[in-house]
Design a protein that fits this description.
With 544 residues, the chain is an alpha+beta fold. It folds into three domains: 109 residues, no CATH class; 246 residues, no CATH class; 65 residues. Helices cover 22% and strands 33% of the residues. The strands form eight sheets. Strands 1-3-4-7-6-5 form a six-stranded antiparallel barrel. A five-stranded mixed beta sheet has the order 2-31-29-9-28. Helix 5 packs across helix 7 and helix 6 packs antiparallel against helix 7. The radius of gyration is 46 Å and the shape is rod-shaped. The two termini are 49 Å apart. About 7% of the residues have low confidence.
Length: 544
């Protein structure tokens, strides 16, 4: 049955019937103004067949075919404006064209519906602070590259303050006798707490290899080389001067030695260092528009101990720029650990479990002078041995002569000479025995040589080429959300995207049209605020 349509307008607008993109209007008046400004042809009192959605246009086919959209107002129902896509045109006769159309439900019922909380799969965010949007995206990322300056913290003692080296002797006794040092060292080694851990040994620390050689010499002269349990190096600032006494000692045979010795208990570790690194503002020199690209997995950093262990960290998990504290306790190999102090809602020592232990510092090798130790050890016994041999040999010789046994006398002389020769031979054997190497040289030596003894922070990111691809994707389709919520509306300068799963929409809308609206939301729909920028992704689209 034919019904009168009081007004029908033909328009040419950028909207398409796939309903992937539509225009946004703040109210019906703004919507009507836009479409009326684009009216190209006007027809009054025309009719359409309601079952076929067709109206017969009293105009030439070639004239009508230039247009893609209609709007009309059917006074038989109300003063409401309807909007529709032109689906097909058919030539009827000269001066008449049948126009098949389909209602654009998004525009027609834009102000008649309400989108209720729905499962939002994707949308443009209204808060693009890095770290606010971390739901993983299924995007190709390519290979990672270093993104900025590598931060290297080197605790190699030889590169520390004033190029001084703490060479630490862990000893069970002090040298005495010919190797004695200044009496201020005391008589017996006393145990102390070192970083809260008890040790029954003490640490004698010197600053240079020359001083170390002299101290080893003192222990050799005292025949106490075995009292040196270990020699190792530690960072210069690992020694808390509040817990040590630095004194000068002079040995007549070894020379002057400056020694630092632990004198007080230490119940806490020493803070060796603090490390920090600035968060990135670009990806491989590419500055992204969408700041999700400044978070993992697009960019991150890892901390390496340069000894085979590394830990990945995400920029967005830090409150401000990442900061680490490095604690250490003096011991063989040195124990150090770097831990974040502002990570994952922790502060200070609270981030300890997220830290990374350092590689072991060098255990030094050293020579103990075997001959000096042997002579010192046998200096008393050897002369007595020789004297005994001479006396015994002489008495044997006198006895043999007195009894008329010259062969016995010769034998006694030979025995005496053998004894003396044996003693001398042992002396010679000791003198040619190589100095005894002790300790070990561990894998930390290469790190010392390379100035990599500590931690290295590597900022990483995807390549700029992939960052640009991801940025363009986010421009068009926003971020993955995966939440039940009400979608954002009118929160961007030029456009915003929304994709739902099972959209919840209510309103005074015919059921078939409502289903189309829901389908558009479920398929993914972009709203454009400014018709002049429709489908123009190159314009700014900041949050408003």
């Amino acid at each position: 049955m034919a019904k009168n349509i009081s007004k029908v307008y033909l328009l040419n607008v950028p909207l398409e019937d796939d309903m992937r993109n539509t225009l946004y209007f703040a109210n019906a008046s703004a919507q009507q103004s836009y479409f009326q400004a684009n009216i190209a042809k006007t027809y009054n009192n025309v009719s359409y067949q309601s079952d076929t959605r067709t109206f017969r246009c009293p105009d030439q086919y070639d004239t009508v075919r230039q247009y893609n959209y209609i709007m009309w107002q059917n006074t038989a129902y109300s003063n409401k404006w309807f909007y529709a896509f032109i689906k097909k045109m058919t030539y009827v006769s000269d001066g008449y064209t049948d126009v098949v159309f389909e209602v654009d439900p998004l525009q027609t019922f834009m102000f008649d519906i309400e989108v209720k909380p729905s499962f939002i799969e994707r949308e443009h965010t209204n808060n693009d602070t890095p770290g606010n949007n971390t739901i993983p995206e299924d995007l190709e990322l390519g290979e990672y590259v270093v993104n900025g300056s590598i931060v290297n913290t080197d605790y190699d003692p030889s590169s520390s303050e004033n190029n001084l080296t703490w060479i630490c002797f862990q000893v069970s006794d002090y040298p005495d006798g010919d190797g004695a040092l200044d009496p201020s060292l005391g008589d017996d080694v006393k145990g102390n707490l070192n970083g809260g851990v008890y040790t029954g040994l003490t640490y004698l620390m010197v600053l240079t290899p020359t001083m170390a050689n002299r101290l080893i010499r003192c222990y050799d002269l005292a025949n106490k080389s075995n009292a040196i349990v270990a020699i190792f190096q530690v960072p210069f600032n690992a020694i808390n001067t509040n817990n040590v006494a630095i004194t000068n000692h002079t040995n007549s045979k070894a020379g002057m030695i400056t020694i630092a010795e632990f004198t007080g208990n230490s119940s806490t570790p020493t803070v060796l260092d603090s490390m920090s690194i600035a968060k990135p503002s670009s990806i491989n020199s590419y500055v992204p528009r969408n700041r999700k690209l400044l978070t993992y997995p697009f960019t991150y950093f890892y901390v390496s101990n340069n000894a085979g262990t590394s830990v990945d960290f995400h920029w967005e998990d830090f409150n401000g720029n990442p900061h680490f504290t490095v604690d250490g306790v003096v011991c063989q190999g040195m124990s150090i650990k770097a831990y974040p102090t502002n990570y994952k809602n922790t502060s200070g020592i609270g981030g300890y479990d997220y830290g990374i232990s350092g590689g072991k510092f060098p255990m030094c090798a050293w020579n103990s002078d075997y001959y000096t130790n042997w002579v010192t050890q046998n200096a008393v016994n050897m002369p007595l041995s020789v004297t005994s041999s001479v006396v015994n040999g002489t008495l044997g010789l006198i006895g043999s002569v007195a009894t008329g046994n010259p062969l016995g006398a010769i034998s006694g002389v030979a025995n005496m000479m053998e004894s003396i020769g044996s003693a001398v031979a042992k002396n010679y054997e000791a003198s040619i025995t190589p100095d005894q190497a002790k300790g070990c040289v561990n894998c930390g030596d290469l790190n010392v040589a390379e100035k990599r003894f500590g931690y290295t922070i590597y900022p990483m990111s995807i390549k700029a080429q992939y960052a640009k691809i991801c940025d363009d994707w986010f421009d068009m389709f926003g971020y993955k959300v995966n939440r039940v919520k009400t979608p954002y509306v009118a929160h961007r300068q030029n456009w915003w995207y929304i994709k739902t799963i099972g959209a919840n929409i209510v309103g005074n809308v015919p059921n078939d049209e409502m289903n189309k609206i829901k389908e558009a939301y479920n398929n993914g729909l972009t709203f454009w605020r400014n018709p002049s920028n429709f489908l123009n992704y190159s314009v700014s689209n900041g949050i408003v």
